[in-house]
Write a structure and sequence with these properties.
The complex is a heterodimer of chains A (about 350) and B (about 350). Chain A is mostly helical and about 350 residues long. Chain A has three domains: about 1-45, no CATH class; about 45-90, no CATH class; about 100-340, Orthogonal Bundle (MetI-like fold). Chain A has helices spanning about 10-40, 45-75, 90-95, 110-140, 150-155, 165-175, 180-185, 200-225, 230-240, 245-270, 275-280, 295-305, 310-340, and strands spanning about 75, 85. In chain A, helix 2 (about 45-75) packs across helix 13 and helix 4 packs antiparallel against helix 10. Chain A is globular. With about 350 residues, chain B is of the alpha+beta class. Chain B has helices at about 10-15, 30-55, 60-65, 145-150, 155-185, 190-200, 210-220, 225-230, 235-245, 250-260, 265-275, 280-295, 295-300, 310-320, 325-360; strands at about 75, 80, 90-95, 100-110, 110-115, 120-130, 130-135, 135-140. The longest helix of chain B has about 35 residues, at about 325-360. Chain B is elongated, with a radius of gyration of 31 Å. Residues about 1-5 and about 10-25 of chain B have low confidence and may be disordered. Classes of the chains: A mainly alpha (about 350), B alpha+beta (about 350). Chains A and B meet through helix 1, helix 2, helix 4, helix 5 and helix 6 of A and helix 2, helix 5, helix 6, helix 7 and helix 11 of B.
Chain lengths: ~350, ~350
């Protein structure tokens, strides 16, 4: 911060300090109460004071909701306020988990929920494996000594920053009945494909688009891992005339494994929560072919005629348990990485 | 792989390369070919869709429904013809004798089009409509961008998005940096527990607690106000963690010296530690801007009146309408994407290091 009243300061700096003036004023105003507390209580209350606002937010919007969520899942009715709700015990869970045959969603009482779980399972199996595969290939290629490396890194990374709505609309425009992809198919003499009418195609594009949008993020993590591998290992291998395939199998892959594990678990955690881009792209359709767990929670709790908060909460508790397991796996994976 | 690290070959290596053991230099390994094919495909697949979006966003509604689509946005040429007040659309017509002429259309009656020669307005022709094709030139339909800003609520959505992004980022920076300061500078009872708690909240994404957060927001009377979007996500574990790690690198001597000079704790926070943490704060600011600008699920739940829609929710509402107006949607998608691209172009380095160092986005 330049000293005040310094008229010889260059214009840019004076503009900067003018822009910072509201911030400075804000911090100055808060100085008095903080000083008062420090004068009375000394240093002891200060850390708690600094932590208070953030912790209050966490409490109000994370911790309290976590418990309330559980309470919600044990009640029924359509009222939002807990005091007006009917205690139902584990009824919501029983309703959700009532299936005569767990391998077939249609035999479940709440078949939409199970369809959502099945869809999510199919989705993450394909999405995570191809996402990790392509991120790995991209990271390996970007780690080579290629021309314009920074440019290519940006090429693969920029979709990460696009909003899911934008990503979905970009692809929807390409995949429409009269879109450019169908024009390409027609020019090859093939028939048009109605991508959003066929369940298989809709699922394919849901997986494809989410890989397109998120690959750059995982590539970046793997790239950082690749660059941390000591170069002397490669030099030694080069001296021995080791083939590239062997170098990859014996040096790159084992040393990258901890990062790869982290990437797999992170991709699983994100994959289980898939909603945004697929919801805009397919709306969960055709029918329920691309409806996932989060969309089930959203529709049940918020967008249907009858807002069934209890059922939505029970479903999110189930989702929470799955995510908790995955996060534990992630922590285990990260710990392994620190040991290596 | 090995190309990446081996130094340039010496003269001796070059001379003996042909007979040397192992791989010969200069010969293409399959991975070299693969690399270039992959990169070329990558550019096409990653950039292509965005280029197509931008090109399409400048097409007229008529140009958008055309199949097969044209690559560039085109508009039909109109010509002034003596004796007609309005400019007339120009066509290339095939006449009965097989000759092709450029004619302007006066009016269309059923399947026959009444046309006139622009060079010679006295001569009129009657041409079946399937024997004429419009004459077009490269033209960008800027009205796709201008109209929504005037006619729809798009300016409002834009403003809402800007307000949410700016306010939420300021709140996040303030409370996260205060918490990080508390955790980095002081030794106190419960520090470890609080640190674990902060990291623990990472495990609870909003998707798991949608209903109860909605309850909290409702009981605070914030539903359908922008505060409902701004506040719940303001305290981010990522931000606290990132800033704390950075503040730990600030030498304690500096803070001790400030205390000797009778600076209050609050003063040390905002005049010593904050300025020194600017790089980390910049990273968090960029992250927060991206999070907030792109946020979708939570605003979708909590904003149900169109006056408070953010851009993302507004765009989704438009694309879900029965009669989808793609020419406006595409243009507004470009507007929504623009700030992010600008941020990326200028601050790519920050973003990359931020993600690589926190493992989060």
């Amino acid at each position: 911060m330049p000293p005040r009243g310094d008229t010889t300061a260059p214009l840019a700096r004076r503009l900067q300090s003018a822009a910072a003036a509201p911030a400075v004023l804000f911090f100055r105003l808060l100085e008095a109460p903080f000083q008062l507390i420090q004068r009375v209580g000394g240093l002891r209350p200060m850390p708690y004071l600094f932590l208070a606002p953030n912790l209050a937010f966490f409490g109000l919007f994370v911790v309290v909701p976590l418990f309330v969520n559980f309470a919600f899942s044990l009640t029924g009715g359509t009222n939002l306020y807990l005091s007006d709700r009917v205690w139902t015990g584990t009824e919501q869970y029983e309703f959700l988990l009532d299936c005569t045959n767990f391998t077939d969603p249609l035999t479940c009482r709440e078949d939409r929920f199970w369809k959502g779980i099945f869809n999510t399972a199919v989705f993450i199996v394909f999405q995570v494996s191809f996402l990790v595969l392509f991120s790995l290939i991209t990271a390996l290629i970007l780690n080579r000594k290629i021309r314009a490396r920074g440019f290519f890194r940006a090429v693969f990374f920029f979709p990460v920053l696009l909003s899911p709505v934008v990503v979905a609309l970009i692809w929807k425009w390409i995949l429409l009945r009269d879109g450019i992809l169908n024009a390409f198919l027609v020019s090859l003499g093939l028939p048009k494909i109605l991508f959003f009418v066929s369940p298989e195609w809709a699922m394919f594009w849901a997986i494809f688009v989410s890989i397109w949008a998120h690959m750059g993020f995982y590539t970046l993590i793997l790239l950082a891992g690749l660059q941390a591998i000591p170069p002397d290992l490669y030099e030694a291998a080069e001296m021995d005339g080791t083939s590239r395939e062997r170098v990859f199998r014996r040096i790159t892959l084992p040393l990258l494994w901890p990062n790869l594990l982290v990437v797999i678990v992170l991709a699983l955690i994100k994959g289980v929560q898939i909603f945004d881009e697929v919801y805009v792209l397919t709306g969960g359709g055709p029918g329920t072919a691309t409806q996932f767990i989060v969309q089930y929670i959203y529709t049940t709790g918020f967008s249907s005629q009858v807002q069934n908060f209890g059922l939505a909460s029970a479903a999110s508790v189930v989702l929470g348990v799955v995510l908790f397991g995955l996060t534990m796996a992630q922590l285990a994976a990260t710990r392994r990485k620190d040991d290596v | 792989m090995s190309d990446a690290i081996s130094p340039r070959p010496s003269l001796g290596e070059l001379l003996s390369a042909r007979r040397g053991r192992g791989r010969r230099r200069g010969r293409l390994h399959w991975t070299d070919v693969f690399t270039w094919v992959y990169l070329a495909l990558g550019i096409f697949l990653m950039f292509g869709p965005v280029v197509w979006l931008v090109l399409s966003s400048f097409k007229t509604p008529a140009g958008l429904v055309e199949f097969p689509p044209t690559f560039l946005p085109l508009g039909q040429i109109s010509v002034e013809v003596a004796g007609h007040e309005e400019p007339l659309p120009l066509f290339r017509a095939t006449l009965e004798d097989g000759s092709v002429r450029e004619l302007a259309q006066v009016r269309r009656i059923g399947i026959v089009s009444q046309m006139v020669d622009p060079a010679d307005p006295e001569r009129t022709f009657r041409v079946p409509i399937d024997r004429r094709a419009p004459v077009r030139e490269f033209r960008m339909a800027f009205e796709n961008y201008v109209d929504p800003l005037k006619r729809f609520d798009f300016t409002r959505y834009l403003w809402n998005s800007v307000a949410v992004t700016v306010a939420a980022t300021l709140v996040t920076l303030l409370i996260n940096s205060m918490a990080a300061y508390g955790l980095a500078i002081y030794e106190f009872r419960g520090r470890r527990a609080i640190m674990l708690f902060v990291i623990g909240t990472l495990m609870i994404p909003i998707t798991v607690i949608l209903v109860p957060v909605y309850l909290v927001v409702t009981s605070m009377g914030m539903v359908n106000s922008l505060w409902a979007v701004i506040l719940p996500g303001a305290a981010t574990p990522t931000g606290v963690f990132l800033l704390r790690q950075y503040m730990l690198t600030i030498p304690t001597d500096l803070i001790e010296a400030a205390r000797m000079d009778k600076a209050s704790e609050w003063r040390i926070y905002w005049r010593v530690v904050m300025p020194l943490s600017l790089p980390a704060i910049a990273v968090l600011a960029i992250f927060s801007i991206m999070w907030r600008w792109n946020e979708f699920l939570w605003p979708l739940i909590v904003l149900s009146r169109s006056e408070v829609y953010t851009l993302q929710v507004g765009l989704n509402a438009f694309q879900g309408e029965l009669d989808v107006q793609w020419h406006y949607i595409l243009a507004m998608t470009v507007v929504t994407l623009l700030p992010v691209v600008l941020v990326f172009a200028f601050l790519q380095r920050f973003i990359a290091t931020g993600i690589a160092s926190t493992g989060m986005k």
